[in-house]
Design brief:
Layout (H helix, E strand, L loop, with lengths): L1 E5 L2 E3 L3 H7 L3 H8 L6 E2 L5 E4 H16 L4 H8 L5 H31 L5 H9 L4 H16 L4 H11 L9 H14 L2 H12 L9 H20 L8 H12 L10
Antiparallel strand pairs: 1-2, 1-4, 3-4
Helix pairs in contact: 5-6, 5-9, 7-9, 11-12
């Protein structure tokens, strides 16, 4: 049997609705937004089905208690999302917030840990990499410019193997190291130096860029253990292979189209 409401004051014997709806601004808001379904009587009163309204209002308040927004709650009520899907989306959003907060906390601690004479410099360094996701995007953009026009799948493979993901809960040393990477790739001289190392002076003459790309990649894999062990740069087979890679790649004859 419908319950009659005037100005969202329940005229029914249902104890829950009487308790939560009498003069409740949030309930009136849910009514106005269509979250709680109602109809008007001839006298202008809101008409609710007591049982279904109770169930919907309980669900709304429980989801709100977990921090879900009204748009997500509305999707659940309209059957566009399940409760599980809505909760999973909110959980993913919170994961992003926690990562952002962890990055910020590490940055603050890094400034605090710096010597007084170095704090201004470290502050400038970390301010330029204030968000881990944005910092990672900066590294990706740098290498995308360097490696153009590498195929998308090849570039994605390069990103996975060579551009570190920002730590979810970085230490002071990690956030400083990542910020230093960002500072490097935003330096125009670095862009020119890396392009020169990879493509040399006449990149337009390299016919098989993909072949050169993978040749350099293989050489990098060979030297990773040396870098990890802190071996100083020196002459040897690895350096010879790097120097010889461009000459081993087919070149265009002058006047040929690229």
């Amino acid at each position: 049997m419908p319950a009659t409401i005037s100005s969202c004051v329940i005229a029914t014997n249902h104890p829950f609705l009487c308790e939560i709806s009498s003069g409740d601004a949030s309930t009136r808001f849910y009514c106005d937004e269509g979250i709680l379904e109602s109809r008007r009587s001839a006298g202008g009163h809101r008409m609710f089905d007591a049982d279904s309204a109770t169930e919907r209002l309980l669900l709304v308040r429980r989801l709100r208690a977990l921090g879900l927004g009204l748009s997500s709650i509305t999707d659940v009520l309209h059957g566009e999302r399940s409760i599980g899907e809505a909760v999973a989306a909110e959980s993913a959003r919170l994961d992003g917030e926690f990562r952002s907060l962890a990055w910020r906390r590490a940055s603050l601690r890094a400034v605090e840990a710096a010597a007084p004479t170095q704090r201004a410099e470290r502050l400038a360094l970390l301010a330029a990499a204030q968000d881990g996701g944005a910092a990672h995007d900066c590294l990706v953009r740098f290498w995308r410019r360097i490696l153009m026009p590498t195929r998308g799948c090849d570039f994605d493979s390069f990103v996975c193997g060579n551009i570190p993901e920002p730590p979810a809960d970085p230490s002071v040393d990690e956030v400083v190291a990542y910020a230093e990477l960002v500072a490097l790739v935003t330096d125009p001289d670095m862009n020119n130096a890396v392009r020169q190392q990879l493509w040399r002076n006449q990149s337009e003459l390299i016919r098989d860029r993909r072949g050169l790309f993978f040749s350099i990649g293989d050489i990098m894999l060979d030297v990773i253990p040396l870098v990890s062990e802190g071996v100083r740069p020196h002459s040897g087979s690895e350096l010879d292979a790097f120097v010889d890679a461009p000459s081993a790649t087919p070149q265009e004859r002058r006047g040929d189209s690229v």
